[in-house]
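ok so i was messing around last nite and threw this chain in just to see what happens. nothing serious, just curious
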Amino acid sequence: MQITVAGATGLIGRALITALRNRGDELIVLSRDPGRVPEWMSGVTVLGWRPVLERPPAEALEGVDAVVNLAGAPIFPGRWTESRMRTIRESRVAGNRNLAEAIAELDRPPRTSVVGSAVGYYGSRGEEELVEEAPPGSDFLAGVCRDLEEEAQAATRAGVRVVRLRTGIVMAPSGGALEQILPLFRAGLGGRLGSGRQWFSWIHISDMVRVILRALDDDGIEGPVNATAPHPVRNVEFAKALGKALRRPAIMWVPASLLRVALGKTASVILSSQRVVPVKLSRAGHEFDFGDIQRALVDCVSDSRAA
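result:
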């Protein structure tokens, strides 16, 4: 397949590019700074694209089999200032709008568009089990996810199969959320955040890549897809599992009030409860390599030690 990827240098993008190259796909990468391509991406066609400001170049999309858009300003780390919230929103909403508009004008559009959204679409929903048909939430991230998905879905008017991946927190040996908290847990200072009862929806990086490959290859997969492991866990269960994987105690507690003081609006993501289940993938017979949080964390921690 010939596949165009935006957001290739992020946590998921790097792993995806490796998998696509290993299986022999022909790749085009869209980058904000094509002159500073990482050495590991040598041999890949790289074209410039500033997602917020412009449409991607037609030569990156015309006649390719699929496009994957993972581009977007990072949610973590740091506080959400008004300026940063605008950047987070525009990088995703305007980027997907520009992509869909470019696709609509092609003579030979891609057959498939896979777009990165997030479980933040649902907002904080307590104990409710969240399947793909659940309505969006009403907080900031829910609004961003809802709007970016609406923009991306416009590509269906050009006959494109659009897959909107609502991704959970990605567990990986390096990078992402796990890298941010490992030092605390290794020092024996890990534990539950807030009440600890909030649901935590996650996915191992290797399973995340396999979900994207499934979305690219399976014409029966379309619309919103929960890209999460089949068994979400509570925050306190996650803390215990990570402590066990590291052979460290995980008995500390950070009150919600302290998190809000330290992180401001960003704390809402950590304290939100999202019990997301991948119903569409399960119905399609998709199998996960890491369906259990303990096994996933042991794998990530072992790899991070070896790195």
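not much to say yet. Residues 82-104 form the longest helix (23 residues).
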